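Researcher: Structure prediction, please.
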Amino acid sequence: MISTNAAWDAKNALMAKRPIYAFTIAGVATVFTSRDLALEGVTGSLPAYKAWLNTPSGASQTIDVVNGTSSIGEMQCEVVDHGGLVRGLVGGNNALIGATVTLSVGYPGIAWTEFVTLQTYELYKVNPTPGYTSWMFVSRDRQMLAKKTIYYHPENGELLSKDNPWYLAGTPVECFLAIVLFALGLDPATVDLAALEALDSPAEGLFSGVRPFLFVLTESFEAKQFIESEILKPSCMYAVVTNTGQISLRAGRAPAAGPSPEFGFTADNVVVLPTLDRMKIINEALWQFDDADGTSMQDVTYLEATSIATFGRGEQFSVQSKGLRTELGAYWFTQWTSQRLFRRFAGTPAGLLGGAPVVDVEAMLLTMPVWVGDYVTLSHPKMPDVMTGALGVVDRVYEVIDRSPDYLRGRMKYKLLDTGLTGVGAAPTYGTAIIGTARIFG
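Model: Predicted structure follows.
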């Protein structure tokens, strides 16, 4: 969820509103805005600005929760070229490409410091539009930086080879950080370290019991593809890029504290009837991973018997991992991950009764703070409850797996995934009372 403030929230909640968009380029003194800040009553110390920005197109992000993949978002901001000033900026600034750009939004009457950041991307290219009356600034999220091939050992700078292998080991989070910080050399500020530390903490109970990965990397590899196929998919995780531009991870499981919805979609903020679909049922997981000496592959298959008896054989979840090791707990890890996968996608829990529902929602602009990876609720009196056959859904809990803004039309589109989280409470936690050497669970 995007962090906002009280003044912005009050303006954003109004039915009639006039958003003001601001496009900032690092190293460029002029901020391009969609309206005149002074005339719109924006208060405080205003930056040097030109009201030459057309309403930008929104940047979307799409998640494939099963395969652990994330799309790279692209944002386009068109700036009108008055008197050739933008042309001069583009032509005379060799450092423009790769600069950090920020799209923020505010409303008339609030302070400049109360504008809220919508996207933080890297400038990818700048082109003149047809007719040469404006320039299109195209930027992409920082996952683009991971679309690089790693050729060199991050510790000694020599080419990866059988004689110069990189031993990469640890939890999924530790392996992810080693690649993005050391192999890719990204600035730690571009990574959501707080969220990653929380995922690895004993309180979450995700990976503190085992460090299952040991990769022996002897040849070049593309970082993003490796992260998604070798680390995130086997761990039921996926990457998201926050509105501040940081790369973060989300687990395919509610937090230990239980799902905490950030926002509630209702008939009052949804502009059309939600549409429903079902994901394929996944009730078979095939794993291949290294054995103890790393010379052959172990094959393990897990089946969800209740799902197969009810629906027949469904979609197969298949992982080939050279990093999971028997001696590091691969059998336990794959069984545990498969159980979490089946809990979400095998269709057997009473709260699902079939393939996980996916709901497409088109909502009003006031829902802008909702982000990919958030938990939200949906209530709608006209929406059929596919679990009970009744008409009307109340406070059903979903996970946001797609976010597509349409700022020009004042709409936001979301794809919501239902994996039976409604009514799921917090996980058992350790209490404080200790009797002898036994710890009492609360």
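Model: Residues 265 and 378 are 5 Å apart (CA to CA).
Researcher: Thanks, that helps.
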